[in-house]
Amino acid sequence: MDIDAWVWWLIGAVGLGIPLVLTAMPEFGMFSAGAVAAAVVAAVGGGTVAQVLVFAAVSVALLAVVRPIAMRHRSQNPRFASGVDALKGRQAVVLERVDGRGGRIKLAGEIWSARAFDASMAYEEGQQVDVVEIDGATAVVM
């Protein structure tokens, strides 16, 4: 049983794809893509040296170009906020006087307990305030 070289390269690509799935390391995917490129070269009749050179060139090129981009995206903060983080910086309307001890506001369509960021400040009913942070179930406003 004689197996063509392109089949071996595809088996190698699958073999490199398995650790990619198991470890979530994108480098294995880049090597797998290099093996697929070498399989194409083998299928069109390229020699062993050409196959190995294409595998190395494609793998190294992907590592040099894609990996830094992936690492940059991985290290960035998410562009959207969710949960209580999404409420920080939003405006709210005072429903009951808010001071350093407490009060009530309407924030994002919901009624929240609130307290003033600066304990010496007080905000009256109907006034607009900005949410500085969320402390438990209390919005801290100014």
Jot down its keywords.
142 residues; alpha+beta; five-stranded mixed barrel; 5 strands
Ordered list of secondary-structure elements with their pairings:
Layout: H1 5-23, H2 26-43, H3 48-75, E1 91-96, E2 104-107, E3 110-116, E4 128-135, E5 138-141
Parallel strand pairs: 3-5
Antiparallel strand pairs: 1-2, 1-4, 2-3, 4-5
Helix pairs in contact: 1-2, 2-3
What distance separates the N and C termini?
78 Å
Question: Overall pLDDT, averaged?
Answer: 90
General form: rod-shaped
User: How many alpha or pi helices?
Assistant: 3
Q: Helix and strand succession?
A: HHHEEEEE
**Estimated helix fraction:** 40-55%
In the predicted model, the low-confidence regions spanning at least 5 consecutive residues are none
Number of strands: 5
Gyration radius from CA atoms, angstroms: 29 Å
Explain briefly what this protein structure is:
With 142 residues, the protein is α+β, with helices and mostly antiparallel strands. The chain is built from three helices and five strands; from the N terminus they run αααβββββ.
Mind explaining what this structure looks like?
- Strands 1-2-3-5-4 form a five-stranded mixed β-barrel.
- The model has no long low-confidence stretch (mean pLDDT 90).
- It has helices spanning 5-23, 26-43, 48-75, and strands at 91-96, 104-107, 110-116, 128-135, 138-141.
- It is rod-shaped and about 85 Å long.
- With 142 residues, the chain is α+β, with helices and mostly antiparallel strands.
